[in-house]
Chaperone protein HtpG
Amino acid sequence: MAKKQFKAESKRLLDLMINSIYTHKEIFLREIISNASDACDKLCYQALTDDSVGMSRKDFKIEIKADKEQRILTVSDNGIGMDREDLENNLGVIASSGSYRFKQEVGDDAKDTDVIGQFGVGFYSAFMVADHITVVTKKYGADTAWMWQSAGADGYTITACERDSVGTDIIMHIKPDTDDEKYSEFLESWRLQELVRKYSDYIRFPIRMEVSKTRRKEGSPDDKPEYETYQEEETLNSMVPIWQRRKSSVKPEEYNKFYRDKFHDYADPQKVIAVSAEGAVTYKALLFIPGATPFDYYTKEYEKGLQLYSNGVLIMDKCADLLPEHFRFVRGVVDSPDLSLNISRELLQHDRQLKVIASNLEKKIKSELAKMLRDDREGYEKFWKNFGRQLKYGVVAEYGAHKDLLQDLLLFYSSTEKKPVTLAEYVSRMKEDQKYIYYAAGDSLEKIDRLPQTEGLRESGTEILYFTEEVDEFCAQILHTYQNKEFRSVLDQEIEEGAEKKAEEAAGAHKAAFDFVKETLGDQVKEVKASARLKSHPVCLTAGEGLSFEMEKYFQAVQP
Ligand code: ADP
Ligand code: MG
């Protein structure tokens, strides 16, 4: 039996496309500009082997024109253009991509181009903002130009027309505003500039537009200057992404400025990490460790993630999957041509490549921090002040799943060194007969200094780590050991043999005093006992069975 072909219900499909694939209308400009860039790329590629093209990379450009009165937005390019057949095949058939076929045809050489298109749906996104689109185009090598016209679902017409040079104009008749939906912004110069910078900043060809500027009127007096506005064509995009440049060719000041502009920070980053990877997945990444804690860092408002680009086109502003929680303070961008994008190019299809990238970046961040700790202690302590707490949270999270990765990056204040030290440093200084890594928890360094239970150890010159943050003690419990040395609270320090017995005897002799204290305090304490750990202090408080005071505080702090 002859197989029947599926017939796509084009009208409905187009409707679906227009109304449900994209979450943001504004994305249409990214799609139309990406197509223009692809068209330039294709002719550029042809020029490599065909001298008669007579153009090189620098000759290509994309132009945007907005006519507010006519409500027409035009995007023009001097790329490869389309003939009648191309128009039928590419714009007449939904989900047919000339760019995808181009990449298949040129095969391996596609690596040298930056062709973006692949799904054959981007063009139709323009119907989200335009009720009528006219395409005027002339293909390279053809004599005739063609006009394609459509008002969306009702179909399209193709007629012969005039166009002086090779290239394409996409002429969009912007919809009228309604009470619910506004479209006029897409005719505003500032808005178009904003969108180009947001989504298409790294398109490799100049995107040009006439913008109004103000200047001082010639001859106007100094004390009464007059100003006038004038129009000037400007390139809106920066074209070469800083992360595509070789690290050695970028000045530190350029990185800093890029960081401040892109992530709206007033402070320079503390560290810049540039990554260029080829292999299983090809990508470039530019990561920054902020120089200050963002004001909302430890709140729910703070959103982690890296900006994700594919071939210089923005796919996602904050891709959370690229960063583990414990490094959520890192900001930056990742650009990879290898991502499998979904049809709207707003999300990723499946995340195998993303997982590879994320895991490589995690290792890279860890090794850069370890390097800073080794080579720039002062810098590391500054970093620690800003984000150390995050690393401790990281140790505690997921029952210590990341503790091996993070434990060497931790710092705790030391009683003997009077400054933050690493666990490795502590262990290297341990006395021969010292079994434990001692810590004491309290609200502040001064309070811990005055803690009766630290006195004995301090007198004997034993180093104690001071835990002043609510997460510290939990962190030690999750680590449990470091280099086979167990953590132990000063409250549980071992006591000399026989000392306990002696204390009990003493308590027996002064039973009346103990009873008096217990009766006076009543329910506020569980029991009043003699302690074998005190030196010069008369009393100390200890927690009973279960949680320590500090742990209790931690749980109170993390409870929503
Ligand atoms: P995609 O870009 O994913 O292929 P689109 O719907 O955006 O899908 O575009 C469909 C096809 O139309 C493109 O593959 C390309 O062949 C053709 N096309 C669109 N815009 C232009 C243009 N400005 N110049 C030349 N060809 C274009
Ligand atoms: Mg496209």
User: Anything to note?
Assistant: Residues 31, 34-35, 117, 122-123 surround magnesium ion (ligand 2) (CB under 6 Å). The two ends are 66 Å apart (CA to CA).
